[in-house]
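Structure ticket #2291
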Amino acid sequence: DFYTAGTPNGQKVAIALEELGLTYRVHALSLSKGNQNKPEYLAINPNGKIPAIIDRDEEDFIVFESGAILIYLAEKTGRLLPKDPKARTTVIQWLMFQMAGIGPMMGQAGHFLKSAPESIPYAIERYQKESRRLLEVLEGRLNAADYLAGEYSIADIATYPWVAAHGYSEISLEGLPKVEAWLERVGSRPAVQAGLK
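Resolution: structure written out below.
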């Protein structure tokens, strides 16, 4: 059971479920209606955020936090996360880069640009500049490899929906040809396209 909404954090788990060929049932939550704060959902994710899953094959095991879900699904299937400690750590460090950097910064940029009750130019500029800097870090990494950890992995899956939504936060990709090529490469995967739907 997959509890989600149409945000990059939800999309990354949908993409992973599709890539891994797992059967799942979607429970769409309306964030604008506050479904994530209802007691029945807080019993699944006490933090009141999406996504969350319940693995019915594993005694109704609950996992919340998108990065934790990606690691769990990769470990469950033995795919998209290498077993070799160095290769595994490379994937996890780029996954954490998304979780701690790209997602929060681009999310804040979008919030202050589109949703804040009043315009705060300092906040908009701060989060847009930091988001752009992080994309430049990705550009540097993608100069050395086609995918963030060398091979396609949960790090790419986690990062793709946020970078693909760069226009929402008005973050330019000008001068980042490797990022643009990576977006095209990842975005052309059938499982990615299915997950985004």
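Closing remark: The CA atoms of residues 34 and 159 lie 26 Å apart.
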